[in-house]
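Example record

The entry below shows one chain as it appears in the dataset: sequence first, then C-alpha coordinates.
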Amino acid sequence: MHTVQEVLQQCTVNSLVVKLPDIQFEREFYEQIAAALKGIGGKWNKSKKGFVFKHDPSELLNRIANGEQINLQQDYQFVPTPDNLVDKLLEIAVVGLTEQDILQPQCFLEPSGGDGQIIKGIFRAIANKFPKIKLPSISTYELMERNRVILQGIPNVNLLGEDFLKANEQIKYQRIIANPPFSGHQDIDHVYKMWSCLAKPGRLVTITSQSWVKGSDWKSEKFREWLEFVKAHVITIPHGSFKETPVGGCILVIDKGVTLGIPKIEFEEPNKLKNDDYEDLSSPEELIAELLRLEEENKVLVRSLRDELSKCFFTGSDDENPLVIVQNLLDDSEEITTSILGLQELTNKPIKLDSEIVESSKSSEPIASKPLSNPVQLSLF
Protein backbone atom coordinates (compact mmCIF):
# COMPACT_ATOMS: atom_id res chain seq x y z
CA MET A 1 0.00 0.00 0.00
CA HIS A 2 1.52 3.29 -1.11
CA THR A 3 1.39 6.55 0.83
CA VAL A 4 0.93 9.96 -0.77
CA GLN A 5 4.55 10.81 0.04
CA GLU A 6 5.80 7.63 -1.59
CA VAL A 7 3.85 8.35 -4.77
CA LEU A 8 5.11 11.94 -4.87
CA GLN A 9 8.67 10.68 -4.46
CA GLN A 10 8.18 8.51 -7.54
CA CYS A 11 6.84 11.36 -9.68
CA THR A 12 9.02 12.54 -12.56
CA VAL A 13 9.52 16.09 -13.80
CA ASN A 14 9.76 16.58 -17.55
CA SER A 15 10.24 20.24 -18.40
CA LEU A 16 7.29 21.84 -16.56
CA VAL A 17 5.16 18.69 -16.35
CA VAL A 18 4.96 16.39 -13.32
CA LYS A 19 3.92 12.85 -14.21
CA LEU A 20 2.65 10.27 -11.77
CA PRO A 21 4.15 6.76 -11.59
CA ASP A 22 2.36 4.06 -13.59
CA ILE A 23 0.21 2.86 -10.70
CA GLN A 24 -3.57 2.34 -10.50
CA PHE A 25 -5.08 4.50 -7.75
CA GLU A 26 -8.39 4.50 -5.96
CA ARG A 27 -10.25 7.76 -6.63
CA GLU A 28 -10.05 9.06 -3.06
CA PHE A 29 -6.30 8.37 -2.89
CA TYR A 30 -5.75 10.01 -6.28
CA GLU A 31 -7.57 13.13 -5.08
CA GLN A 32 -5.11 13.43 -2.18
CA ILE A 33 -2.18 13.28 -4.61
CA ALA A 34 -3.84 15.74 -6.97
CA ALA A 35 -4.56 18.15 -4.10
CA ALA A 36 -0.89 18.08 -3.06
CA LEU A 37 0.28 18.86 -6.62
CA LYS A 38 -2.34 21.55 -7.15
CA GLY A 39 -1.30 23.06 -3.82
CA ILE A 40 2.12 23.85 -5.29
CA GLY A 41 0.68 25.33 -8.46
CA GLY A 42 0.08 22.33 -10.72
CA LYS A 43 -2.87 21.97 -13.06
CA TRP A 44 -3.96 18.70 -14.66
CA ASN A 45 -3.53 18.61 -18.44
CA LYS A 46 -5.09 15.65 -20.18
CA SER A 47 -3.13 15.93 -23.41
CA LYS A 48 0.20 16.03 -21.53
CA LYS A 49 -1.00 13.33 -19.11
CA GLY A 50 0.41 15.16 -16.15
CA PHE A 51 0.26 18.25 -13.94
CA VAL A 52 1.53 21.33 -15.73
CA PHE A 53 3.36 24.16 -13.92
CA LYS A 54 4.28 27.68 -14.99
CA HIS A 55 7.69 27.40 -13.35
CA ASP A 56 10.09 24.60 -12.44
CA PRO A 57 8.26 22.59 -9.72
CA SER A 58 11.24 20.45 -8.67
CA GLU A 59 11.98 22.20 -5.37
CA LEU A 60 8.37 22.38 -4.22
CA LEU A 61 7.73 18.80 -5.33
CA ASN A 62 10.68 17.62 -3.25
CA ARG A 63 9.34 19.48 -0.23
CA ILE A 64 5.83 17.99 -0.36
CA ALA A 65 7.33 14.56 -1.16
CA ASN A 66 9.13 14.83 2.18
CA GLY A 67 5.97 15.60 4.10
CA GLU A 68 5.72 19.39 4.03
CA GLN A 69 2.18 20.74 3.68
CA ILE A 70 2.07 23.49 1.05
CA ASN A 71 -0.93 25.30 -0.38
CA LEU A 72 0.29 28.42 -2.14
CA GLN A 73 -3.16 29.86 -2.68
CA GLN A 74 -4.19 29.51 0.97
CA ASP A 75 -0.79 30.32 2.50
CA TYR A 76 -0.17 33.45 0.45
CA GLN A 77 -3.58 34.20 -1.10
CA PHE A 78 -1.76 33.81 -4.41
CA VAL A 79 -4.10 33.72 -7.39
CA PRO A 80 -2.34 34.63 -10.67
CA THR A 81 -4.01 37.43 -12.58
CA PRO A 82 -5.07 36.21 -16.06
CA ASP A 83 -3.46 38.06 -18.97
CA ASN A 84 -6.78 39.27 -20.35
CA LEU A 85 -7.64 40.83 -16.97
CA VAL A 86 -4.14 42.33 -16.68
CA ASP A 87 -4.58 43.96 -20.07
CA LYS A 88 -7.87 45.53 -18.91
CA LEU A 89 -6.15 46.94 -15.81
CA LEU A 90 -3.40 48.45 -17.95
CA GLU A 91 -5.83 49.82 -20.52
CA ILE A 92 -7.23 51.90 -17.66
CA ALA A 93 -3.89 52.65 -16.01
CA VAL A 94 -2.04 54.13 -19.00
CA VAL A 95 -4.71 56.74 -19.73
CA GLY A 96 -3.08 60.16 -19.50
CA LEU A 97 0.51 58.90 -19.30
CA THR A 98 3.15 60.66 -21.38
CA GLU A 99 6.65 59.58 -22.42
CA GLN A 100 8.07 62.01 -19.89
CA ASP A 101 6.00 60.40 -17.11
CA ILE A 102 7.19 56.90 -17.96
CA LEU A 103 10.86 57.91 -17.93
CA GLN A 104 10.55 59.01 -14.29
CA PRO A 105 12.04 56.41 -11.86
CA GLN A 106 8.95 56.55 -9.62
CA CYS A 107 6.29 56.02 -12.27
CA PHE A 108 5.06 52.49 -11.50
CA LEU A 109 4.41 50.47 -8.32
CA GLU A 110 2.98 46.95 -8.19
CA PRO A 111 2.77 46.27 -4.43
CA SER A 112 1.85 42.56 -4.70
CA GLY A 113 4.18 41.35 -7.42
CA GLY A 114 3.17 37.68 -7.46
CA ASP A 115 4.94 35.88 -10.28
CA GLY A 116 5.10 39.02 -12.41
CA GLN A 117 1.87 38.81 -14.39
CA ILE A 118 0.89 42.46 -13.87
CA ILE A 119 4.49 43.65 -14.21
CA LYS A 120 4.80 41.93 -17.58
CA GLY A 121 1.47 43.50 -18.52
CA ILE A 122 2.89 46.95 -17.73
CA PHE A 123 5.81 46.26 -20.05
CA ARG A 124 3.41 45.11 -22.79
CA ALA A 125 1.23 48.20 -22.41
CA ILE A 126 4.19 50.58 -22.51
CA ALA A 127 5.73 48.83 -25.51
CA ASN A 128 2.41 49.15 -27.38
CA LYS A 129 1.77 52.78 -26.44
CA PHE A 130 5.34 54.04 -26.70
CA PRO A 131 7.27 51.58 -28.88
CA LYS A 132 10.37 53.76 -29.20
CA ILE A 133 11.16 54.42 -25.53
CA LYS A 134 13.12 52.33 -23.06
CA LEU A 135 11.02 50.16 -20.77
CA PRO A 136 10.61 51.72 -17.31
CA SER A 137 11.68 50.40 -13.92
CA ILE A 138 8.83 48.93 -11.86
CA SER A 139 8.94 48.79 -8.06
CA THR A 140 7.29 45.87 -6.28
CA TYR A 141 6.92 43.83 -3.09
CA GLU A 142 6.24 40.11 -2.72
CA LEU A 143 5.74 37.78 0.25
CA MET A 144 6.28 34.40 -1.41
CA GLU A 145 9.92 33.34 -1.61
CA ARG A 146 9.50 31.46 -4.89
CA ASN A 147 7.87 34.47 -6.51
CA ARG A 148 10.59 36.80 -5.24
CA VAL A 149 13.16 34.65 -7.06
CA ILE A 150 11.05 34.88 -10.24
CA LEU A 151 10.70 38.67 -9.91
CA GLN A 152 14.44 39.10 -9.39
CA GLY A 153 14.97 37.39 -12.74
CA ILE A 154 12.78 39.88 -14.63
CA PRO A 155 14.73 42.86 -16.07
CA ASN A 156 13.79 46.37 -14.89
CA VAL A 157 12.09 45.09 -11.73
CA ASN A 158 13.03 46.77 -8.45
CA LEU A 159 12.10 44.37 -5.61
CA LEU A 160 11.81 46.63 -2.56
CA GLY A 161 10.82 44.07 0.07
CA GLU A 162 8.39 41.37 1.16
CA ASP A 163 5.36 42.87 2.91
CA PHE A 164 4.00 46.05 1.38
CA LEU A 165 1.70 46.70 4.34
CA LYS A 166 4.67 46.77 6.73
CA ALA A 167 6.95 48.80 4.46
CA ASN A 168 7.87 52.37 5.33
CA GLU A 169 7.23 53.53 1.78
CA GLN A 170 8.01 57.23 1.29
CA ILE A 171 8.05 57.44 -2.52
CA LYS A 172 4.97 58.65 -4.40
CA TYR A 173 4.13 56.83 -7.63
CA GLN A 174 2.19 58.11 -10.63
CA ARG A 175 0.59 54.75 -11.36
CA ILE A 176 -0.14 51.92 -8.91
CA ILE A 177 -1.56 48.69 -10.37
CA ALA A 178 -2.28 45.70 -8.14
CA ASN A 179 -4.13 42.50 -7.34
CA PRO A 180 -3.67 42.19 -3.54
CA PRO A 181 -4.77 39.32 -1.26
CA PHE A 182 -8.50 39.23 -0.51
CA SER A 183 -8.94 37.33 2.76
CA GLY A 184 -9.59 39.14 6.01
CA HIS A 185 -10.17 42.43 4.16
CA GLN A 186 -6.48 42.59 3.28
CA ASP A 187 -7.52 44.15 -0.02
CA ILE A 188 -9.03 47.11 1.85
CA ASP A 189 -5.82 47.58 3.86
CA HIS A 190 -3.81 47.50 0.63
CA VAL A 191 -6.04 50.09 -1.05
CA TYR A 192 -5.59 52.54 1.84
CA LYS A 193 -1.82 52.03 1.80
CA MET A 194 -1.65 52.33 -2.00
CA TRP A 195 -3.59 55.59 -1.82
CA SER A 196 -1.00 56.97 0.60
CA CYS A 197 1.73 56.07 -1.91
CA LEU A 198 -0.05 57.61 -4.90
CA ALA A 199 1.41 60.81 -6.36
CA LYS A 200 -0.67 63.85 -7.15
CA PRO A 201 -1.61 63.71 -9.99
CA GLY A 202 -1.81 59.91 -10.14
CA ARG A 203 -4.07 56.93 -10.78
CA LEU A 204 -4.61 53.78 -8.72
CA VAL A 205 -6.05 50.72 -10.49
CA THR A 206 -6.51 47.63 -8.35
CA ILE A 207 -8.49 44.44 -8.10
CA THR A 208 -10.40 43.79 -4.89
CA SER A 209 -12.90 41.24 -3.65
CA GLN A 210 -16.63 41.90 -3.79
CA SER A 211 -17.13 41.26 -0.07
CA TRP A 212 -17.02 44.94 0.89
CA VAL A 213 -19.80 45.85 -1.59
CA LYS A 214 -22.62 44.65 0.66
CA GLY A 215 -20.73 43.75 3.82
CA SER A 216 -22.43 44.99 6.99
CA ASP A 217 -19.24 44.97 9.08
CA TRP A 218 -17.70 48.25 10.19
CA LYS A 219 -14.67 47.98 7.91
CA SER A 220 -16.76 47.44 4.76
CA GLU A 221 -19.11 50.30 5.63
CA LYS A 222 -16.25 52.73 6.25
CA PHE A 223 -14.54 51.59 3.05
CA ARG A 224 -17.66 52.31 1.01
CA GLU A 225 -17.85 55.78 2.57
CA TRP A 226 -14.20 56.41 1.79
CA LEU A 227 -14.58 55.24 -1.83
CA GLU A 228 -17.45 57.68 -2.25
CA PHE A 229 -15.34 60.44 -0.76
CA VAL A 230 -12.43 59.86 -3.20
CA LYS A 231 -14.88 59.45 -6.11
CA ALA A 232 -13.78 55.91 -6.91
CA HIS A 233 -15.04 54.19 -10.02
CA VAL A 234 -16.04 50.54 -9.52
CA ILE A 235 -16.08 47.91 -12.28
CA THR A 236 -17.47 44.46 -11.45
CA ILE A 237 -15.36 41.44 -12.47
CA PRO A 238 -17.62 38.45 -13.24
CA HIS A 239 -17.29 35.24 -11.27
CA GLY A 240 -15.16 32.74 -13.16
CA SER A 241 -12.73 35.35 -14.51
CA PHE A 242 -9.91 33.80 -12.47
CA LYS A 243 -9.03 30.32 -13.73
CA GLU A 244 -7.90 28.98 -10.35
CA THR A 245 -11.00 30.01 -8.43
CA PRO A 246 -14.67 30.82 -9.05
CA VAL A 247 -14.24 34.07 -7.12
CA GLY A 248 -15.18 37.28 -8.91
CA GLY A 249 -14.06 40.73 -7.85
CA CYS A 250 -14.00 44.44 -8.56
CA ILE A 251 -11.66 46.83 -10.33
CA LEU A 252 -11.28 50.08 -8.41
CA VAL A 253 -10.09 53.13 -10.31
CA ILE A 254 -9.12 56.07 -8.10
CA ASP A 255 -7.59 59.31 -9.36
CA LYS A 256 -5.73 61.77 -7.12
CA GLY A 257 -5.39 65.41 -8.13
CA VAL A 258 -6.67 64.74 -11.64
CA THR A 259 -9.75 63.41 -13.39
CA LEU A 260 -8.86 61.03 -16.21
CA GLY A 261 -11.10 59.20 -18.62
CA ILE A 262 -11.95 55.53 -18.15
CA PRO A 263 -12.21 53.36 -21.26
CA LYS A 264 -15.21 51.05 -21.59
CA ILE A 265 -14.27 47.67 -20.17
CA GLU A 266 -16.20 44.58 -21.22
CA PHE A 267 -15.80 41.02 -20.01
CA GLU A 268 -16.49 37.89 -21.96
CA GLU A 269 -19.07 35.60 -20.41
CA PRO A 270 -16.97 33.41 -18.06
CA ASN A 271 -17.02 29.62 -18.28
CA LYS A 272 -19.14 29.71 -21.44
CA LEU A 273 -19.07 26.26 -22.95
CA LYS A 274 -17.69 25.83 -26.43
CA ASN A 275 -18.24 22.93 -28.80
CA ASP A 276 -14.59 21.95 -28.68
CA ASP A 277 -14.40 21.95 -24.86
CA TYR A 278 -15.34 18.26 -24.70
CA GLU A 279 -14.23 16.95 -28.07
CA ASP A 280 -11.48 14.90 -26.40
CA LEU A 281 -14.00 13.16 -24.10
CA SER A 282 -14.67 10.07 -26.14
CA SER A 283 -16.38 7.69 -23.74
CA PRO A 284 -19.46 7.70 -21.48
CA GLU A 285 -17.36 7.36 -18.33
CA GLU A 286 -15.27 10.40 -19.27
CA LEU A 287 -18.38 12.46 -20.02
CA ILE A 288 -19.92 11.43 -16.71
CA ALA A 289 -16.73 12.40 -14.87
CA GLU A 290 -16.82 15.81 -16.52
CA LEU A 291 -20.49 16.24 -15.62
CA LEU A 292 -19.66 15.37 -12.02
CA ARG A 293 -16.79 17.86 -11.99
CA LEU A 294 -19.03 20.65 -13.28
CA GLU A 295 -21.69 19.86 -10.68
CA GLU A 296 -19.07 20.02 -7.91
CA GLU A 297 -17.90 23.36 -9.31
CA ASN A 298 -21.46 24.66 -9.16
CA LYS A 299 -21.74 23.57 -5.54
CA VAL A 300 -18.59 25.53 -4.67
CA LEU A 301 -20.27 28.66 -6.00
CA VAL A 302 -23.54 27.98 -4.20
CA ARG A 303 -21.76 27.27 -0.89
CA SER A 304 -19.78 30.49 -1.31
CA LEU A 305 -22.96 32.47 -1.87
CA ARG A 306 -24.55 30.81 1.16
CA ASP A 307 -21.55 31.72 3.33
CA GLU A 308 -21.72 35.36 2.28
CA LEU A 309 -25.50 35.62 2.70
CA SER A 310 -25.25 34.12 6.17
CA LYS A 311 -23.47 37.32 7.23
CA CYS A 312 -26.53 39.38 6.31
CA PHE A 313 -29.90 39.76 7.98
CA PHE A 314 -33.08 39.24 5.96
CA THR A 315 -36.74 39.69 6.86
CA GLY A 316 -39.83 38.21 5.27
CA SER A 317 -41.05 34.70 4.52
CA ASP A 318 -38.83 31.78 3.54
CA ASP A 319 -39.95 32.20 -0.08
CA GLU A 320 -38.44 35.70 -0.03
CA ASN A 321 -35.33 34.90 2.01
CA PRO A 322 -32.24 34.63 -0.25
CA LEU A 323 -30.42 32.44 2.27
CA VAL A 324 -33.26 29.87 2.32
CA ILE A 325 -33.45 29.90 -1.48
CA VAL A 326 -29.71 29.30 -1.80
CA GLN A 327 -29.82 26.46 0.74
CA ASN A 328 -32.58 24.86 -1.34
CA LEU A 329 -30.39 25.17 -4.42
CA LEU A 330 -27.59 23.43 -2.54
CA ASP A 331 -29.91 20.62 -1.44
CA ASP A 332 -31.06 20.16 -5.05
CA SER A 333 -27.45 20.11 -6.18
CA GLU A 334 -26.63 17.34 -3.71
CA GLU A 335 -29.48 15.25 -5.18
CA ILE A 336 -28.14 15.84 -8.70
CA THR A 337 -24.68 14.72 -7.62
CA THR A 338 -26.13 11.55 -6.10
CA SER A 339 -27.92 10.82 -9.39
CA ILE A 340 -24.74 11.33 -11.40
CA LEU A 341 -22.82 9.00 -9.08
CA GLY A 342 -25.55 6.41 -9.58
CA LEU A 343 -25.22 6.79 -13.34
CA GLN A 344 -21.49 6.38 -12.99
CA GLU A 345 -21.97 3.04 -11.24
CA LEU A 346 -24.30 1.88 -14.02
CA THR A 347 -21.52 2.26 -16.58
CA ASN A 348 -19.78 -0.53 -14.63
CA LYS A 349 -16.41 0.92 -15.54
CA PRO A 350 -13.87 2.86 -13.46
CA ILE A 351 -13.26 6.46 -14.46
CA LYS A 352 -9.99 6.69 -16.37
CA LEU A 353 -7.23 8.51 -14.55
CA ASP A 354 -6.21 10.41 -17.66
CA SER A 355 -9.38 12.48 -17.44
CA GLU A 356 -9.90 15.28 -14.95
CA ILE A 357 -10.92 14.01 -11.53
CA VAL A 358 -13.59 15.76 -9.50
CA GLU A 359 -12.26 18.67 -7.47
CA SER A 360 -12.74 18.48 -3.74
CA SER A 361 -15.16 21.17 -2.67
CA LYS A 362 -14.77 20.68 1.08
CA SER A 363 -12.50 23.66 1.59
CA SER A 364 -12.66 25.31 4.98
CA GLU A 365 -11.87 28.67 3.40
CA PRO A 366 -14.95 30.72 2.42
CA ILE A 367 -15.00 31.96 -1.15
CA ALA A 368 -16.35 35.34 -2.19
CA SER A 369 -20.01 35.31 -2.96
CA LYS A 370 -21.59 34.85 -6.35
CA PRO A 371 -23.55 37.99 -7.22
CA LEU A 372 -27.34 37.90 -7.20
CA SER A 373 -29.10 38.17 -10.54
CA ASN A 374 -29.97 41.81 -9.80
CA PRO A 375 -27.16 43.10 -7.57
CA VAL A 376 -27.47 46.49 -5.92
CA GLN A 377 -25.07 48.97 -7.52
CA LEU A 378 -23.24 51.42 -5.29
CA SER A 379 -23.57 55.12 -5.97
CA LEU A 380 -19.89 55.94 -5.61
CA PHE A 381 -19.34 58.30 -8.50
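Notes for this example: The chain has a mean pLDDT of 78. The radius of gyration is 23 Å.
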